[in-house]
Fold this protein.
Amino acid sequence: MTPSSIFIGQQIITDVWGQPPSSTAGWATSVGTSGYTTNCNGQTIIGGFEKFGNFSWAWKQYSGLLGHEEVSVQADFYFIDSWDGANSNDSVSLDIDDLNVAYVHYEKDSESSTDFCGNHWTDFKKTYTLGPFPHNSTTIKVHWTIGLDQGPADESFGFKNVRIIVHVICTPACATCFGNDISECYSCNDGWFLEGTTCVNPCPPAKYGDPATNTCKRNSICIFWL
């Protein structure tokens, strides 16, 4: 199962994460459903030298997304060897659920002078965050298409540290949340008060709603000694 976590109104799904990655499984690629990883500069990546060149692609479907209206996709991109830049079709395309949403172009030597894997040309690694894009399904298909015009021994592409950022919809009572239910709140909108992780109105007995913090607080008891 692909790891998922919640961080202040965002569900974060991670894949091919860390070194070594906890998992590289589940991808359908132009070189098959196995044997699609390489090592670049000490990092295990999907694709790479002699794997993803012209006519290459990779996709994976994820499930378990909370209710949302937008997603963003982040990944580390590895541009390896002789990318020809904007004057060619040397690019990476992102489709979400078979709808194209983004292109990224690169030209060798434009941002790096280091040869760290592949052949003798310079290589470049960069973390891209693409989006947010409209989306509201409980599943998502992330599909990379590599628009290179030469084989993977001449120019290639790889990626890792994939993050799917799901912008979770809070209920009207919640200002920030970790789910779609009124009991999954970090903080409350005006007129509601946080009790545990639930926004309520009124607060439970022996508590009152503090409008300065939108939280339930315990009533003070004053004792007077005579």
